[in-house]
Design a protein that fits this description.
The chain is of the alpha/beta class. It has one domain: Vaccinia Virus protein VP39 (Rossmann fold). Helix 3 packs across helix 4. The protein is globular, with a radius of gyration of 16 Å. The model has no long low-confidence stretch (mean pLDDT about 95). Its EC number is 2.1.1.-. Belongs to the methyltransferase superfamily. YrrT family. It is an enzyme of class 2 (transferase).
Length: about 210
């Protein structure tokens, strides 16, 4: 359920905001257009929002400023601590994409950035099935995440990272469960979502899935 990466989350916590600002050359392309990515997720959100993988709270802040109620879920204590300091008074619960405190009312939007790839494809399907029940009849899912058009494109990115000496990036691409657009589209359609994609940089796409009645 992504928890095999918890030590990585804890280690990233202190430096995460520097990385998203482009100050880590190894991950600069991954976080290119970061502000636009967050703004696009906010633009596509409506109503009460459940956010998975709150991290250091950057998206949460923008959702709140846009007037949304936010239910935050984050597995890493170090990340939660930073987010709670950044956004006083906001409740961020311990949990992950599959195991989290369930609200007793429907939500209108489920969002996440840079996190859904921590699930295997079979776990992604479990999550989508679960979210289809949590959302109201016309609810939506908005994910900003790394994905690839083909498996060959992913292999090429790994090779390029090695060539540039970006060992950590190459290791991430090999270790984590980055999938392809067609697999994601198939999974969402299976649970009656209409899906569209928008590319934001060489790695990250916005996935917009709207529940069909």
């Amino acid at each position: 359920m992504g928890l095999e990466f918890i030590d990585i989350f804890e280690g990233w916590a202190e430096d995460y905001d520097k990385s998203v600002q482009g100050l880590n050359p190894e991950y600069k392309r991954v976080f290119e257009n970061y502000e636009e990515i967050l703004n696009e997720v906010v633009r596509l959100s409506k109503g009460t929002v459940m956010e998975f993988g709150v991290g250091t709270g950057n998206l949460t802040q923008r959702l709140l400023h846009a007037g949304h109620s936010v239910i935050g879920i984050e597995p890493s204590k170090a990340m939660r601590d930073i987010a709670n300091k950044k956004i006083p008074g906001v409740s961020i619960s311990k949990g992950d994409f599959l195991d989290f405190p369930k609200p007793d009312y429907p939500v209108q939007t489920i969002v996440s950035t840079y996190a859904f790839h921590h699930l295997k494809d079979s776990e992604k399907e479990q999550a989508i099935r679960l979210y289809s029940k949590l959302l109201d009849p016309h609810g939506r899912i908005v994910f900003g995440d790394t994905m690839f058009i083909t498996k060959e494109a992913k292999t090429a990115m790994i090779q390029q990272a090695h060539k540039l000496g970006y060992k950590n990036l190459a290791d991430d691409l090999k270790r984590e469960y980055y999938t392809t657009k067609d697999i994601l589209e198939e999974l969402f359609k299976k649970y009656h979502f209409k899906v569209s994609f928008k590319q934001m940089n060489d790695f990250v796409w916005i996935l917009f899935a709207e529940k069909q009645a």
